[in-house]
Amino acid sequence: MTHPWHPIPGGITAPAGFRAAAVTAGLKPSGNPDLVLLLAPEGAVCAGTFTTSLVRAACVDLCAERLAVSGGHARAVLINSGQANACTGERGLADSLRATAATAGRLGLRPEEVLICSTGVIGVPIPMDRLEAGLDPLVAALSPHAGPAAARAILTTDLVDKQIALEASLRGRTVRIGGMAKGSGMIHPAMATMLGYLSCDAGVPAELWQAMVKRAVERSFNAITVDGDTSTNDTLLAFAAGDSLPPEHLEALEAGLTEALQHLARAIARDGEGATCLIEVQVEGAADGAGARAIARTVCGSSLVKCAVHGRDPNWGRIVAAAGRAGVGFHATAVALWLGDHQLMAAGEPLAFDRPAASAYLRERAAGSYLGGSGPGGDTVLIRLRVGDGPGRGVAWGCDLSDQYVRINADYTT
């Protein structure tokens, strides 16, 4: 079955009925836009996935609680960039409640219909006087054309914005999906610092929508890593509002949903702090897809593999060693390994290969154009592993590890 999704402009506000706004409220010292509002049409359902860390921001718990109580219904999300508002004690929750109530009042909504996400330095509260002063211009700026501006305003250490919009014709009906995300460091989602948002102009029952989003997240945000560190604020919120789709179109809708989230996930991995290339690890032959994805993610997350890629060193031993500690059963004698078009192992044993050519492949990938997470291309290092003859296939994405990552994070708050 083919799924005719194709890219269109517009980002998160491309789907019908969705509006966004971004303003500069003075929350970030850079003076860049730092306060965002996303408003969904009436009757919208919202699915959420959140960090599983025991140390998390109050806004994460507030979002999860409101979605649980409402049965997956929400109309808006307020996003502040500059302060994570995590580990800020009782003030963290009080400020989140205050911000959502103030936003709801200006939108004519109940406070419970408004969600909030924060991103920035842990332990720093939101300067509420500045946030509240920015709400009137923020609401006034709501527009169906502000998706790109919103995607830029949620960034912190990111070098580029991350957004996408897709469109498909399903039995003559046009359906659109939009998305935006942020994240560059502290990326190893268990649901990275990452925030993600998705919009869709097709109606889906809340429980079904949550299940679809959860499956798509497993194949996207839960399949990336930059540095092995999860965050206190990781959140994905996905809104759907519009006329219901017939059941026979739900498979195509989920395919589009997965494609959109994978695009955003790859963009985050490629924009990893200090990275020069995207790493894609494809695993086949595992007992099931979950096992294959676990192996792929372990290889992507290996500091030794990441350093070897950055050094343009085809040190294949690091790859198979990482695969072996993924906690997934397979026979070492079945392993085959490729780096790009260069096969390095077969039947668990090394093959003679052109080492200078393999190293040149890695150099060429680093010199490739930055595709912004658009998929395998000029700057993607492809590693392929076959671990047996099982049906399980999986893919994960990461990036190389450079000295710039250390420099960026060594003095992050000083």
How is the topology of this model organized?
Layout: E1 6-7, E2 19-23, E3 35-39, E4 45-50, H1 58-70, E5 76-83, H2 90-107, E6 114-121, H3 128-140, H4 147-153, E7 162-170, E8 173-182, E9 195-200, H5 206-218, E10 235-240, H6 250-270, E11 278-286, H7 289-301, H8 303-310, H9 316-324, E12 336-339, E13 342-346, E14 349-350, H10 355-366, E15 380-386, E16 392-399, H11 403-410
Parallel strand pairs: 5-6, 9-10, 11-15
Antiparallel strand pairs: 1-7, 2-3, 3-5, 4-10, 7-8, 8-9, 11-16, 12-13, 12-15, 13-14
Helix pairs in contact: 2-3, 5-6, 7-9
Throw out a few tags for this protein:
single chain; 414 residues; alpha+beta; L-amino peptidase D-ALA esterase/amidase; Ubiquitin-like (UB roll); 2 domains; 6-stranded mixed β-sheet; 33% helix; 24% strand; globular
Notes on the protein architecture:
With 414 residues, the chain is α+β, with helices and mostly antiparallel strands. The protein has 11 helices and 16 strands. It starts with 5 loop residues before the first strand and ends with a helix. It has a 6-stranded mixed β-sheet with strand order 1-7-8-9-10-4, with helices on both faces. It has a 6-stranded mixed β-sheet with strand order 14-13-12-15-11-16. The protein has a 4-stranded mixed β-sheet with strand order 2-3-5-6. It has helices spanning 58-70, 90-107, 128-140, 147-153, 206-218, 250-270, 289-301, 303-310, 316-324, 355-366, 403-410, and strands at 6-7, 19-23, 35-39, 45-50, 76-83, 114-121, 162-170, 173-182, 195-200, 235-240, 278-286, 336-339, 342-346, 349-350, 380-386, 392-399. A hairpin with a 2-residue loop joins strand 12 and strand 13. It has 2 domains: 6-268, L-amino peptidase D-ALA esterase/amidase; 278-410, ArgJ beta chain, C-terminal domain (Ubiquitin-like (UB roll)), CATH 3.10.20.
